[in-house]
Structures are given as structure tokens and as C-alpha cells.
Amino acid sequence: LLSWSQTDNDLVAETITEITGVKASPERVVRLQSTIKSRQYFRNNQLVRQDILEETTKVTSGDNPPQIKVLSPKTVKVGEKFNFDVIVTQPLNDDLLLGTAIEEPISRQLYLEPSTLELERLSAGGIYKIITAPLSPDKRWISAVIVGGEGITLITQRVIVEQ
After folding, report:
1. Do the beta carbons of residue 20 and residue 32 sit within 8 Å?
2. How far apart are CA 52 and CA 48, in angstroms?
3. Neighbours of 159 (CB within 10 A)
4. What pTM does this model have?
5. What is the number of structural domains in the chain?
6. What is the CATH number of the domain that holds 25?
7. Neighbours of 17 (CB within 10 A)
8. Which domain holds residue 86?
9. What angle do CA 131, 20, 104 make, to 5 degrees?
10. Cα–Cα distance between 132 and 24 in angstroms, integer?
């Protein structure tokens, strides 16, 4: 619980939820790390609304997945150009990296039918993308996948587009 306040009819709480998980099999280990900052509205002891304020999810697999640092805003203005940089922080030596990034509207359908990604060879030690926010307020996911010789890292962040 980060904070809470009382309005006329509602109790409003801001929380951070951290989710971690590991699935191990003889072929590989898959790790999940997710952090969600949200605001919940309660009326008569019932949850009546929840707003997701920030969201980051990282999935890794393999013995040595690429270690990354993400530089990206959580909130942008409509029509604003912003950077989505996913930087590999470990020495590459002679390793080949593949990867790509995608930006898309948040949709329940994407949970059931994820987007297809085409990997490209990365020559600069990461992904450096300039994204133009939509012209109307929206909530978007920006995602990147980086594949190294000993593992895979997938990162998804929520970006809120405001007026």
C-alpha cells in the first residue's frame, strides 16, 4: 500500500503489486518479473474501479539471457515523439544479438492472440526506437525482445498518452 484517502463516497488506495515466477524444465528456465502500480476505488467495501498507473513485465529464459536497461517515459503527451531505448548492459564480445520492438494499443485480445514479431540483427548493443504517440489519449504497450546466444529477454511497459 503506497497511500490511501477518503472522498465523499469512495476509499481510494494506491498500491504496487510485484509478481515473480519461475518455471524450470530440463530444457530451460523461464523467469517472470512484473510490477504494477494501480489506484483502486472502493465503495461500500466493494472494488468499483481500478486504474493501472504503471506496468512493467520482463520475461527471461535461458542460461544467460541478455541483461538490459530500459529508458522510456511512463507518460507522454498526444502526438509527442519519445525514445524507447533497450540497452544490453553486459559485454557482447563476439555474440550476435537479434531483436525487435513493437508499440501497440492495450487490448484484451492481445493476451489471447499475441502480436507476431520479426527479429532483426542488432548491431548497436540494443534497440533504439523513436515512437510518435497517437493523436488522442490512449494507453499503449511498448515491447522489445532481445535474443542472445544463451538466452532471451522480453520486456513490456505501459505508456499512458495524455492530452
Report:
1. yes
2. 14
3. 22
4. 0.87
5. 1
6. 2.60.40.1930
7. 10
8. 3-162
9. 20
10. 39
